[in-house]
Design brief:
Number of helices of chain A: 8
Strand content of chain B: 35-45%
Strand order of the largest sheet of chain A: 3-6-4-5
Largest sheet of chain B: 5 strands, mixed
Structural class of chain A: alpha+beta
Largest interface: A-B, 122 and 136 residues
Shape of chain B: globular
Largest sheet of chain A: 4 strands, mixed
Oligomer: heterodimer
Helix content of chain B: 10-25%
Radius of gyration of chain B: 23 Å
Helix content of chain A: 25-40%
Order of helices and strands of chain A: HHHHEEHEHEHEHE
Strand order of the largest sheet of chain B: 2-1-3-4-5
Structural class of chain B: mainly beta
């Protein structure tokens, strides 16, 4: 049912007339649904279905992510502590804050000052070196990091690029502030869907990308909307959802770094990657 | 001011702050954040370079380097105004910290505080060792009120100046100062983006992660021991990680599938607010860091993200596109009492609640489609645009004293990190190297 529903919200860019005026603020707190326009109802319904556990595996909105994610966690991450499959870690240190002392590690001016020995991080009191601790902990930074990680990532990215180039999968480009798939994008995806269906053992990752305008955080949301729009259309075209995963890179991995529209338009894309190995 | 009166003043200030938060009064300024606050005129006679060889790292003499850092700290404190003593006939402070008779003349010319000192390499130790003495003359009492003596390796030269500056701020305001605070940020390394930490003035940068892919949007724990941030496991899924700065030890806190972004620990450290799309679209959640229980805070068709805690921990401001473009909304920390805060413009995002509680900084899109910094009061009554011109401004974060903001901007081409006063004055660029520095987040005061 829901898996056949593809929802695009049009007209994201351009002017948005506010849905609420100041006088409505209090009402919104009482009944947030009241003021929503009718065009949101399908989206709301889809979401209600998606959060119902019995339906979630079938739902396009959440099922694909959840399944992919579980495969992911089963294979990965030995460096991290406290990781549990799917969700919230049961085990990480207490971040509770008891409050800072009045002098904040400062000892005050003294008419006959005795020598205070400073070390690179412990001297800053708290944070790096613990509360006024003695000795330097500064050099222990990155003790747990894996120096080979960067090289491994690069090799894996290269392998993905080669496999994706061989598949001749086409990217989908979006308008400014929009996650609606254009006619051109549909043509590209029809082409891609044929290839995917004829290569049933392939796992694909759909990356959502944005141009550099706007905030990093909101572009991650927009990038996910773009990636999901691409996935939903591929599913509409008959691609099995469990072959597709989505990930948003927001504006953090641009294809082009000039500050011009010709570059921006290249960065607003849904990019299909053939996953290799992991 | 004795230590005891300092404690009493501090306690009263705390009571005042609690009262302000309790009463819900948003438009209250404290002390030095008040526009009519008179800065204390302070002059630095000089940090003399004494004995031993010059500093090995640079051509400038050690004393000059410390003096330069100290003056910049004093200027940025916004508690003092830096007075040029060169026209007042001031001679250097006497030996052993005795005031020079010429100081009285400076006092008559309105200088309230005079600082001087000396610094040099210690010759009698095996490793190169630095010592610094600093003295403070107070014109009000016409006496040397005290001094400091620091020693350490050559790597703590800047820290000596920072620490002395914070002692000055503490002596005159009872506040800890910001000269020893840090800024965590994201920096491009090859094709990867990694988490770094630097001093608040842009120096002493250190790399914390070496994942070789993307690490995004770090945020401090209130005790400064940890950073929480978004990482990408094997490039394909996001998670929220925590790293301990002293050890580099790392934990995965949240890995729920879909987006896991914009983590923010509450002021008491008991809750992690974050945005996740594992139940459909991006919604806000609150993880209890003790019980590990998760509470969903938002339920609607729009994306909800970027939570920022009020200083009391009772409210959150966040970004939501439930009404079209992204706008700021407020709610109680349990997800109730949601109301929209911003109505000007069609794009308002990345909110940061000031530590004083009286302002919320955010990114606003101007009619010319520029992304700039704005501030708004939590009651929505006052709004101000802080930056102008070209470039995308992003990720505002307050200094713990509430007098500054740090943010990223592409104003000079590549994304770099800048500092600005809360009133929009004194724009200062603080990163100059690399191809991309972004997502700065200011540490709490120590």
């Amino acid at each position: 049912m829901v898996s056949r529903v593809v929802i695009f919200r049009e007209g994201i860019d351009g002017d948005h007339s506010p849905l609420y005026v100041r006088g409505d603020i209090l009402q919104e707190g009482i009944n947030p649904m009241k003021k929503l326009p009718a065009s949101y109802l399908p989206l709301l319904l889809a979401m209600l279905v998606a959060v119902t556990p019995a339906c979630s595996k079938k739902a396009v909105q959440s099922g694909g992510d959840g399944q992919t994610f579980q495969q992911e966690t089963a294979k990965s991450g030995t460096m991290r502590e406290g990781t549990r499959k799917g969700g919230v870690s049961p085990n990480f240190p207490d971040t509770a804050f008891s409050g800072r002392n009045d002098s904040s590690g400062l000892r005050g001016l003294d008419r006959d000052p005795s020598e205070e020995r400073l070390s690179s991080e412990a001297g800053s009191n708290g944070g790096f070196g613990g509360n006024g601790g003695s000795g330097s902990n500064g050099n222990k930074l990155m003790a747990k990091s894996d120096p080979g990680a960067a090289a491994r990532q690069l090799a894996e990215i290269r392998a993905e690029q080669i496999a994706s180039a061989a598949a001749e999968l086409r990217d989908v480009f979006f308008a400014y502030d929009s996650f609606s798939i254009t006619d051109e994008g549909r043509h590209a995806l029809i082409n891609n869907a044929e290839w995917i269906k004829s290569n049933p053992n392939t796992q694909l990752k759909i990356e959502g990308h944005c141009d550099e305008r706007g905030t990093s955080a909101y572009n991650l949301v927009l990038g996910e909307k773009r990636a999901k729009a691409v996935r939903n259309y591929l599913v509409e075209l008959g691609v099995a959802p469990d072959h597709l995963s989505v990930v948003s890179y927001g504006k953090e991995r641009p294809f082009c770094t000039e500050h011009v529209e010709s570059c921006y338009s290249q960065n607003r894309r849904g990019h299909l990657v053939v996953r290799t190995g992991n | 001011m004795t230590f005891r009166t300092g404690v009493i003043v501090g306690f009263c200030a705390l009571l005042g702050l609690v009262w302000i938060i309790e009463s819900g009064a948003a438009d209250v300024f404290l002390e030095a954040t008040r526009p009519d606050f008179q800065k204390i005129p302070l002059g630095v006679v000089g940090i003399d370079h004494v004995g031993g060889p010059e500093s090995p790292e640079g051509r400038a003499k050690l004393g000059n380097r410390i003096e330069e850092v100290l003056k910049a700290d004093v200027r940025r404190s916004l508690v003092f105004s830096l007075v040029d003593l060169s026209n007042l006939g001031i001679k250097a402070g006497g030996r052993g910290g005795e005031p020079d008779p010429s100081f009285k003349q400076a006092a008559e010319n309105g200088v309230s505080v005079i600082v001087w000192g000396k610094a040099g390499m210690k010759a009698d130790t095996k490793t190169p060792d630095v010592s610094m003495d600093g003295y403070v003359y107070d014109a009000g009492s016409d006496e040397v009120v005290g001094g400091k003596r620091y020693a350490g390796s050559t790597s703590v030269v800047r820290l000596m100046a920072h620490r002395f500056a914070d002692e000055l701020v503490f002596r005159y305001t009872g506040e800890p100062g910001i000269a020893r605070t840090k800024i965590a940020y994201v920096s491009q390394q090859g094709t990867a983006r990694e988490i770094f930490v630097m001093d608040y003035d842009g120096f002493e940068a250190r790399q914390l992660t070496t994942d070789g892919f993307l690490n995004l949007m770090p945020h401090w724990s209130p005790d400064r021991r940890f950073l929480v941030f978004t990482a990408y496991r094997n490039r394909n899924t996001q998670e929220i990680d925590m790293i301990e700065l002293a050890t580099g030890k790392r934990w995965t806190l949240v890995s729920q599938g879909g987006l896991n972004i914009t983590p923010a620990l509450s002021p008491d450290g008991h809750f992690l607010a974050y945005s996740s799309s594992h139940e459909g679209n991006a919604e806000l959640y609150r993880l209890d860091t003790r019980t590990k229980a998760v509470l969903r805070l938002t339920t609607n068709a729009g994306g909800d993200l970027s939570p920022s805690w009020s200083p009391s921990g009772r409210e959150l401001v966040f970004t939501s596109d439930r009404s079209g473009g992204p706008q700021l909304f407020l709610m109680s920390a349990d997800g109730t009492n949601v109301r929209r805060l911003t109505f000007d413009g069609d794009y308002n995002a990345a909110p940061a609640w000031s530590p004083r509680g009286n302002w919320i900084a955010y990114v606003c899109r101007t009619p010319k489609k520029e992304y700039k910094l704005c501030v708004i009061t939590p009651d929505g009554q006052k709004r101000m645009q802080l930056t102008t011109g070209h470039g995308v401004d992003d990720s505002p974060s307050w200094s713990p004293d509430g007098r500054h903001l740090v943010f990223s901007s592409t104003a000079d081409g590549k994304s770099q990190i800048y500092m600005i006063n809360a009133d929009g004055k004194d724009l200062e660029r603080i990163t100059f190297t690399g191809t991309h520095n972004s997502a700065p987040t200011w540490s709490p005061a120590s």
